[in-house]
Automatic annotation (TrEMBL):
Keywords: Signal. Residues 1-18 form the signal peptide. This is N-formylglutamate amidohydrolase. The keyword Signal applies.
């Protein structure tokens, strides 16, 4: 019952700037913003069409088949291999609402609204955070929605003139009720400390402030200029952060370090747009009181992180 109460939440006054764009059959949506921040919500969709536009069936996503040169991602591929070619179909409940509330909260605080891109299809029909094959399993309408989603993100990216940030919003079902921040650094590497802080999905930011100074760049991931720090300042648990610098990965404690979106649109390989995957715990997303209490705190944390790291261009002011 708890989760259904979520729909009764009051929302921030709509900060929409107008010009909202919708993809094919409204399966995807793009709210253009006016700042160098993008919020994406690939797994918060609820639409579960059983048929495609032309009347053909639209089966739920399944695992793929293992062929001689890798996984085959088609519904008619034969015997599936759920271990080697898996498909996760559970949606990240309420993360579309979380994304919109975050954007509205940031507008309330800063006067500027992020770009927001949503996939409105359930993950059982499209996984917008995977490559095209496993994402859509060659279902034509799913392929079209996938292309719309990536085109919308590309539009948002192209609207940002210089350095910028993308936050990919998800929800995890892990026991520990903390937000997991994914920088494409594996949890075991965070635990051991054997990672290069300059080789992450915020590489552009790291280079900008720290150059090749690895100790400095690690502070952007878990120190006083990190997103985790600004969440701690608002009383929110996050890992990595100054309060919880390492996830302490074990068989019963999983840490999600980032998926396709942060890999593709973040700066690990190239470019000036950084990306962080935010995996929110159930307690924050599914509990009415907790979300009412936390949404503005989360917006404040993101605004603070963004302001200190992206709205200043003078490297000489850094004192990490
Ligand atoms: Zn997810």
């Amino acid at each position: 019952m708890l989760i259904y109460c979520f729909f009764l939440f009051t929302t921030f006054p709509s900060g929409l700037l107008g010009g909202t764009k919708r993809g094919f059959k409204d399966y995807t949506e793009y709210e253009p913003g006016n700042m160098s921040l993008i919020i994406t919500a690939p797994h918060g969709g609820e639409l579960t069409p059983s048929k495609q536009e032309n009347g053909d069936p639209w089966p739920d996503r399944t695992a793929g088949c293992l062929g001689s040169s890798g996984c085959i991602w088609k519904h008619s591929c034969g015997e599936v291999d759920a271990e080697k070619c898996p498909a996760i179909t559970e949606s990240d409940l309420f993360t579309a609402t979380v994304a919109r509330d975050m954007a509205d909260g940031i507008k309330t605080i800063t006067g500027l609204r992020p770009h927001v891109v949503y996939c409105r299809l359930s993950r059982s029909k499209l996984d917008a955070n995977r490559a095209m094959g496993p994402a859509a399993l060659s279902v034509p309408d799913a392929v079209t929605a996938y292309r719309n989603y990536t085109t919308f993100i590309a539009k948002a990216v192209s609207a940002i003139p210089g350095r910028g940030l993308l936050l990919d919003i998800h929800g995890h079902g892990h026991k520990l009720q903390r937000t997991e921040l994914g920088y494409l650094i594996h949890g075991t590497e965070l635990d051991s400390g054997g990672y290069d802080g300059n080789n992450s999905s915020i590489k552009s930011l790291s280079n900008f402030w720290c150059g090749n100074d690895n100790a400095c760049s690690r502070k952007l991931i878990r120190g006083n200029w990190s997103l985790g720090h600004f969440m701690n300042e608002e009383g929110l648990r996050a890992v990595p952060s100054p309060q919880e610098p390492v996830p302490k990965v074990s068989k019963t404690s999983i840490f999600l370090s980032g998926g396709l979106t942060v890999m593709k649109y973040g700066s690990k390989e190239e470019g000036k747009i950084d990306a962080i995957q935010m995996e929110l715990p159930q307690e924050l997303r599914l509990n009415k009181t907790a979300w009412q209490d936390s949404r503005l705190k989360l917006a404040k944390a993101i605004s603070g992180f963004f302001k200190i790291n992206y709205l200043r261009d003078n490297r000489r002011t850094i004192n990490l």
